[in-house]
Design goal:
The chain has 170 residues and is of the alpha/beta class. Helix content is 35%, strand content 22%. It contains 6 helices and 6 strands, in the order βααβαβαβαβαβ. Helix 4 packs parallel to helix 5 and helix 5 packs parallel to helix 6.
Length: 170
């Protein structure tokens, strides 16, 4: 079975930087452990990527907190999680169309998603993958995800369940 693990936006700014949370800090060891259960050739990652003009974008106007500016420490994937990836997808929106197309084009049978934020980028990528590759089994490991708040994390998990995305380790 062709399967992949996708690490979503596991970047310093979302863990203990400008948009960090206690929940994100808590999942670091579990994320590293999960990454090590997959081979490098089975691991993909996304990186939220913004530039100096971020605050003038629609997202920046709605979330006026500069974060994940390319080339900064906050933009980097958390050091412990830098275990080697087959490919990293930089994105300046919540979901990566390129990631969804890649999963479809590579004829992946199962994809597991972990990372941050459950209620923004994890759910956006899960829904894009579901749209581009509807026959791929999508799994989200809830114990390796963190949302903006515990409540929004839970709501995102429930929404994904409604869309036939498999949630494990709640």
């Amino acid at each position: 079975m062709k399967k992949l693990l996708v690490l979503i936006d596991f970047q310093n700014d979302f863990i203990d930087g400008s948009l960090g949370t206690a929940e994100a800090q808590t999942i670091v060891p579990r994320v590293v452990e999960k990454l090590n259960t997959y081979k490098e050739s089975e691991r993909l990652a996304t990186q939220d990527t913004h530039f100096e003009d971020y605050l003038t974008t629609q997202e920046g106007k709605n979330l006026p907190v500069l974060h994940c500016q390319k080339g900064t420490k906050g933009w980097e994937i958390r050091k412990e999680a830098q275990v080697g990836f087959k490919r990293v997808f930089e994105k300046n929106i919540f979901g990566s169309i390129q990631l969804a197309e890649y999963i479809r084009d590579e004829r992946v049978e199962q994809v597991e998603l972990i990372g941050i934020c459950t209620d923004i980028c994890v759910i956006s990528n899960a829904m894009l993958i579901k749209s581009f590759a509807p026959e791929v089994k999508i799994i989200v490991d809830a114990s390796c995800c963190a949302g903006v708040t515990p409540e929004s994390h839970g709501a995102a998990l429930e929404t994904m369940k409604s869309c036939q995305i498999h949630i494990i380790n709640e």
